[in-house]
UniProtKB/TrEMBL annotation:
Organism: Pseudomonas koreensis
Record InterPro entries: HATPase_C_sf, HATPase_dom, His_kinase_dom, Sensor_HK_TwoCompSys, Sig_transdc_His_kin-like_C, Sig_transdc_His_kin_sub3_dim/P
Reaction catalysed by this enzyme: ATP + protein L-histidine = ADP + protein N-phospho-L-histidine
Keyword check for Endoplasmic reticulum: no
Summary of the function given for this chain in its UniProt record: Member of the two-component regulatory system NreB/NreC involved in the control of dissimilatory nitrate/nitrite reduction in response to oxygen. NreB functions as a direct oxygen sensor histidine kinase which is autophosphorylated, in the absence of oxygen, probably at the conserved histidine residue, and transfers its phosphate group probably to a conserved aspartate residue of NreC. NreB/NreC activates the expression of the nitrate (narGHJI) and nitrite (nir) reductase operons, as well as the putative nitrate transporter gene narT.
EC numbers on record: 2.7.13.3
Protein name as annotated: Oxygen sensor histidine kinase NreB
An example Gene Ontology CC term for this record: cytoplasm
GO molecular function: 4 iron, 4 sulfur cluster binding; metal ion binding; phosphorelay sensor kinase activity; protein dimerization activity
Residues annotated as transmembrane: 50-69, 226-245
SUPFAM superfamilies attached to this UniProt entry: ATPase domain of HSP90 chaperone/DNA topoisomerase II/histidine kinase (SSF55874)
Classification via Pfam families: HATPase_c, HisKA_3
Amino acid sequence: MAKDAKVQSKNETFVADETETLVESRPASRGVWRSRIKLHARHLSRSTQFVIAAALILGLTMFFVGKLVSARIERAAVQSAAEAGAHYMEAFLEPYVQEMSRDNGLSPNSIKSLDRLMDSRSLKRHIVSIKIWRADGTVVYSTDKSITNRQFPMDEIADALKGNVVTDLEDLDQEENEFERKLNVPLYEIYAPLREFNTRKIIAVGEFYEKAESLEQEINRVRQQVWLVVGTATLAMLTLLFFLVRRGDQIIQRQQVSLRLRLLEQTRLHVSNAALHRKINTATQEFSRINELTLRRIGADLHDGPAQLLTLILIRLDDLAEHCTTLDQESLETIRGAATDALREVRDLSRGLALPEINDLTLTQELQLVAERHEQRTGSKVQLNIATLPDSAPLPVKLCLYRFVQETLNNAYRHAQGKGQTIIASHEEGTLRITVRDTGPGMAADAMVVDGHGRNRLGLAGLRYRVESLGGVFSIQSSPGSGTSVSARLRV
């Protein structure tokens, strides 16, 4: 029993797994089909997609319109034929049913007269069967004698008893239609109210079955005409819409091709500009490096050339001073003073052009170094307001930073006598901002651009070019009596 239970549980598990796999595979297959349909639809042109969608929507709409119109026409044709047939049969049947207002039935003579009427050839060409119904649903006369005096449901004669002509093309599946079914011909039945001559009161309902071949042919012909008109109109609208959409689609395609060409050209120009930008950056960095080397060489040449010659002049002047008169001593002192000043300036220039080794320094240490050297050289005080800065930066940025602060401090010392010299440095969201301020007399607006001879100030222009060559932003804020503030922003 235990083994059987285990086998049964395994079978149930297998069946459950298989069922789940089948259930899961169906949505997967549906998803595959949907993806395939979407893939094929994407490869179709817009005009084709529009025509397919319009054909579905317009086709369904016109189909329902055609069905509605056909049904209305068929109903109208049948009702018209029924009205004509009803008036025709009322003229034949009403004289024989007048006695039903008194006897509630037909006499044998009336039945024989109706039978002779049905044997008429002219009538048989159209009418195949007649029934006369009493108000309670009893058949008092019928071509099929087997249903005479039998009572049937009153669903079909209820409207006729209200004075309406009722007609329908039907399948003749009711019990009282067995005789008509055996004829195997298309028929439509008409229920017409039969009235008393004097009071026009409905005393019976006449039912007759008329051959429907000609009526069906007429209905089919009208239906074909309706569908032909509907189909032609639908096809014409689809064709017109297709050409309109196709024209718009062609315009869109031409615009897309033009946009693609422009996009390719823009992409090519962007790549070219990026390459040029990289070359410019490389050239800028190389220029900065060469410029620093040139400045160092000039500083070295000044130190090794004019500075040494001026030192030699001072030594020779000391030798000559021992053999000169008092008048000559005064001249020698003047020459010695001039040579000493010249030597000091040459050494200052040499020291300023010779940039210290800053590769291993952080940005904070670099700013502290340039401030310290400026204080040693000028004897002025520099205040530092430095926030947290990155420890490392590219060498061109370090060189630009050193020269920017060095030149702005020199300008502050030269034009503001070193009053309120302050270095402010901060770093936010990858942008390094350096500002050097003083509290001197400031500058006029035109003085920040042009000097008295109509030439750009070389110091400020050099700073601007140096900062902007690295993609930075250079700015000056100054007005008479409020000091000067020079700022630089660089991406780090």
